[in-house]
């Protein structure tokens, strides 16, 4: 087998092929690698839950999204006495999580703080751009986690291992240019994440108002004489006077899907299908496009407006979810409860949204201990309030439009993340140069 040809202007190093004018250094060459320190005993009020200095832990790092490379706050603070038993780190220090779920994740401190022994730091940094190193180290996180996971007990990166981690070392001007480009994309990712969170919060608030009748859409808010519609007492509390309380078993039929193992999901199959697990992972309140197909024909087929709910899960909360299928003739797998309405009475999407705000009511119908179950006979006892079909449809349209906006933002977010991955592969290896050697006069 012939060796891989190295392009002109590049060289082979410990981290692979990089430009000839780049170097390869270890983190130990960049600065002094140290661990944080934790006061003992843990939880002692003399040291913890104080108000003197921020206290950086692995748990604090877990709450920071990957799009943010700076640590700007911590969950708790130490007392002054606690700080004397820990390690104080300056603002601008490069830190690396050395244990837990964030093992191998790097950040830059934007605050002065103390760090516990689950956090390592590069202090007295002698060379290089800390932001550049953070971006590179974070491309190696999965590799570091896989290497450490082979041991017994709690996996962790000790300081010797961290000192020996190799990193590319372009000229400083190029390090800065690369870090700036990647940070610009991170900023866009962060802004999209914030916008999605905001839109989701608005949707949740809108659902709470419209689906309970606390706010009525203008076309349904008044009587024919122009007077405002009021409320009435019901088993579910105050509801609009023109809504009715119904038992699900009185207005719906219940069916169960037929076994559809994952092995029977194929590309370009004859029939669209929904597998039980996809109700948790792929679909929300409305299933417009069915993503999977199968060649299995001896199964249960959907009708448009069917509402699908899982019938088993390890938590009761997992069963309190519903998705309305907007397509007929879809194969429905086992462990799926199918609720079939007369489409002239109940909008299935409206009912799926309603399940979200009546989750606790659904969970009261769940049976089981280790594995929880929800059957048609259980859901037949479910009580809910029902507006007119026209109001159901109007509410559904508003919420569906919000979902479409959120989904469009999520697609844009995923695309931006993919762009960043591509940029890292190009920029951190020198395949694409932001600063050419001749531009630096070398």
From TrEMBL:
Pfam families per UniProt: Methylase_S
Chain ranges passing through the membrane: none
Coiled-coil residues: 399-426
A single GO BP: DNA restriction-modification system
Classification via InterPro entries: Restrct_endonuc_typeI_TRD, Restrct_endonuc_typeI_TRD_sf, Type-I_RS_S_subunit
A GO term, aspect molecular function: DNA binding
Domain Type I restriction modification DNA specificity: 19-203, 240-414
Record keywords: Coiled coil, DNA-binding, Restriction system
Family: Belongs to the type-I restriction system S methylase family.
Xref: PANTHER family: TYPE I RESTRICTION ENZYME MJAVIII SPECIFICITY SUBUNIT, TYPE-1 RESTRICTION ENZYME ECOKI SPECIFICITY PROTEIN
Protein's recorded name: Type I restriction modification DNA specificity domain protein
Organism whose genome encodes this protein: Acinetobacter baumannii (strain 1295743)
